[in-house]
Amino acid sequence: MNSRVRVVAAATAISALTGGLAVAGVASAAPGCKVDYTVQNKWQGGFTANVTITNLGDPVDGWRLGWTFPGTERFAQGWNATFDASGAGVTASNVDYNRQIATGGTASFGFNGTMSGTDVGTPSTFSLNGTACTGGVDPTTTTTTTTTTTTTTTTDPGPGPEPGDPTGRKQVERLDRGVISVRSGSGNLVSWRLLAGDPQNAGFNVYRGGAKLNSSPITASTNYLDNGAAADASYTVRAVVNGAEQPASPASLAFGSGYRDVPIQSPGSGYVANDASVGDLDGDGDYEFVLKWDPTNAKDNSQSGVTGNVFIDAYTLQGTRLWRIDLGRNIRAGAHYTQFQVYDYDGDGKAEVAMKTADGTRDGRGTVIGNGSADHRNSGGYILTGPEFLTMFNGQTGAAMSTVNYDPPRGNVSSWGDSYGNRVDRFLAGTAYLDGARPSLIMARGYYTRAVIAAWDFRNGTLTKRWTFDSNASGNGTYAGQGNHSLTIGDVDADGRDEIVYGAATIDDNGRGLWNTRFGHGDAAHLGDLDPSRPGLEYYKVSENSSQPGSWFADARTGQVLWRTEPAGDNGRGVSADIYAGNPGAESWSSADSQLRNTRGTGVARKPSSANFLLWWDGDPSRELLDGTHVDKYGTGGDTRLLTGSGVHSNNGTKSNPSLSGDILGDWREEVVWPTTDNRALRVYSTPNQTDRRIPTLMGRTRPTTSRRTRASTSGTAWSPRRGRTCTTPADRIRATRSRVPEPVGSGTRAGVLTVLAPLRRIPESAFRPVTTRASSGRPHQPAGHHRPRRETSR
User: Fold this and answer.
1) What is the reported pLDDT for 13?
2) Beta partners for 101?
3) Strand blocks (E) in 513-668
4) Contact 48, 110 (CB under 8 A)
5) Angle, CA of 346, 715 and 616, to the nearest 5°
6) What share of the chain has pLDDT > 90, as a percent?
7) Distances from the Cα of 698 to the Cαs of 128, 657, 771, in angstroms?
8) Looking at residue 96, what is its pLDDT?
9) What is the pLDDT of residues 518-543, one digit of tens each?
10) N or C: which end of the chain has fewer CB within 10 A?
11) Are 159 and 4 in contact (CB under 8 A)?
């Protein structure tokens, strides 16, 4: 069963029964707990509940919560815990990432249940590790008491988000079906998400209004062409599991002309809508947009001049603005300065937003961070003095929740490569599962000379540092000068934990150097299972140094270079992805290379017309080319135009990137989002083409992320639905790189993990081959490939 999950706070005083028996006697050390039990959704024969444990006693290391249903309710399926159920009795136990509950801390999980009729009974008593939860700290000896239980019940008509990974291995986001209707010829292409938690035998019924359109459940894909239907027709989708039809999805979003406009509100004249990301900010199972506004006087780091303020907005899919953050005059505007991440870092089901802040930053509720009257700009507009902060913002309200000093501090400006302020303010960001279970925020500074990466955890409302890697530290000297204009995140050594691929070097999940080719700085890079004939992942990168290879292809676990091309000076763009069905694995090409090369480095066909971004658009397993405001299909005799955006603009000068591309709605194909030319809307395009592929949503994997954010340049890894292998391409949560290839469900290929800038989800074993994750200098979704923002006048 899939039901929309919302966290609903309900203060509850509860006494305990375990397995129907009263608990009495001596309690374990300093007991004290409260349980909030919330029925969030109900339908005929079923319901969804969320349970939050608050520890009021000593810290807990490992927990078991027991209760007994009062009536016909029975446990069916749960997430973020392991469950043991017998009749009306249920015991939920921790998984690795929520094993410990500090004094005053909480742990949450959810489940779907069944019952007879429409009334849902709520348990009146709970026990934590055998101790009655009474809402207070019990004396050493406890006896059973009976108190009134207060619960909150909310009814939601649609079944939305699916449960998380039932194995409890990774924190995941819960998405609804994301049903959309795209005008296709004289009909509508209806498509929806296949969720990673869906049973393999799940089928789907499509309804227009109250009429079912398909004669038997759809099992081969997750799209349906409704020929002859009106453009404004409304659709719902119902999963069919073991012959039983499940509740209806939320109603479809209409793309009447092939696109849907999301209204946005400019901060004033002289502002341009720039990069965007998505995340489930309110926990309702669908995404909201987080958008960066740049002033028209934004500057590259190499250019002097005072800029206007940068603003960050959040919008629903209907265009309602949730909040606006004003970064203030002490954050300079430009592609390299503000890399924002959107992700559920604390595991409460709602995404947060993280970015660098400074004196005068005003959060979404109007609260000023630091000294609101401070002005640290020098005569050239650079900000080379004054405090620097890192802030985690509440995704629903925009309120600053935790602010710490930015790591690394700028220190001596000249130690980063120049003395006037260009290279000291080159920032990158990403999201990684460093412990294999929960996401960490990655913030980085510098790549031309000194390079520093800091990993942060956000737990219980507080940012805490996990580790810092500094090329200035003893033993790390060879890692200086190896960074790219983007970073990439993926599990390169197959240990279940993510690494940070930082240009020509990789940092292990524990913050220590893993490998380093010493080929130096560059722009674009792609990580993924690019060569299906080799075990593990591969990495393709271009370089700027005229004495180093123009491009190179390496084993991502060891950094062993498998092939390279001759030095070519400043090779600004490069892509590696499966774009050509006539060649196995990924194809690689770059600005300075005349060849389209196979996984052995041999030229195989005509070079594509662009080397920028990519996306899955037309429904076959190969990627398409995304550049400027159009999408092309690669062919050996020439490229074919599939889409030209109407009334829209690309971003960041010659980089020509959209605000966002990624699988944010509908089936596994990717949407592309450009601002309209008047900057009054984000125009979201989705494919009108049918597909015979059945692939879990690309955003629902364990990763980063979607999420897309701003970055200095992009690169990415991708997948290819043909072989269940990874072909790299940039794209995914604002990715700097993403890679991996989906395969139809039921193919029997191995599971993989992909990171995307939004919460992540594990892919079922039957769905894909090994995957990669990726990160970016922006948020966990974005396209891959690479375009330079603006030509630097000084390096």
Assistant:
1) 26
2) 60
3) 513-516, 525-528, 538-542, 551-555, 561-564, 574-577, 587-590, 596-597, 603-605, 613-615, 624-627, 630-633, 640-644, 660-662
4) yes
5) 90
6) 69
7) 37, 20, 11
8) 75
9) 999 999 999 999 999 999 999 999 99
10) C
11) yes
